[in-house]
Amino acid sequence: MPPQLRLNAVAFVSPQNHPILIRTFVQGQDELKYHYIAHTSLDVIDERITAAIASKSTDCYLNLLYTMEDVAVYGYMTPLKVKIIIALALTDSVVRDADVLAIFRALHTAYRQSVANPFLRLNAPIDGYNDHAVLLAAGSPKWKAFRKRVDDIGKAVGAVAVTA
After folding, report:
1. What is the spatial distance between Cα 75 and Cα 133, in angstroms, rounded to a whole number?
2. DSSP character for 141?
């Protein structure tokens, strides 16, 4: 039986690099640490995207971005340029790309289902204002189902406890 992965945090970042949702699954650790990890990942993601455009790659999975202290950070970018970043606990076991990709696909599906909800009114302005990060902020009560889906995925992957 392969070792269980442990998900420490998930971050969804808008195409304009504004955080949509950052969820931590480790109690007793500083949540600010995972905000820092998400923001530092954006530089690495930009480099990978530039390299992918040059090589005409269409893969959404950006592989291992970097390791820091006790976490391994992986990246994924949806076709609509929303970035998904996960922080897995470092272990001595091998982490298979197929397992990480399955986590990203589940998270992407959760986001896609939430955005496609016809009853979710985002109140998008019509005046040409393109940065909808404020409207997409998942902290509002309208996004409760999205946060629950992300929490369920975290529990399924092996997160011990969910912090609010």
Report:
1. 19
2. G
Coil, strand or helix at 21 = strand
Instruction: Name the nearest CA neighbour of 68 among 39, 48, 93, 97.
Output: 39
Cα 139 to Cα 22, 70, 147: the distances in Å are 10, 27, 9
DSSP secondary-structure letter at 93? S
* pLDDT tens-digit profile, the chain (164 residues): 355 788 899 999 988 888 888 888 887 767 888 999 999 999 999 998 888 888 877 788 888 999 988 899 999 999 888 999 999 988 877 888 888 999 999 999 999 988 887 766 555 554 455 555 555 555 566 678 888 888 888 888 875 444 44
Long-range Cβ pairs for the range 139-144 (8 Å, 24+): 139/21, 143/21, 143/114
Longest Cα–Cα distance of the chain, Å, equals: 55
Identify whether the C-beta of residue 22 lies closer than 8 Å to the C-beta of residue 11: yes
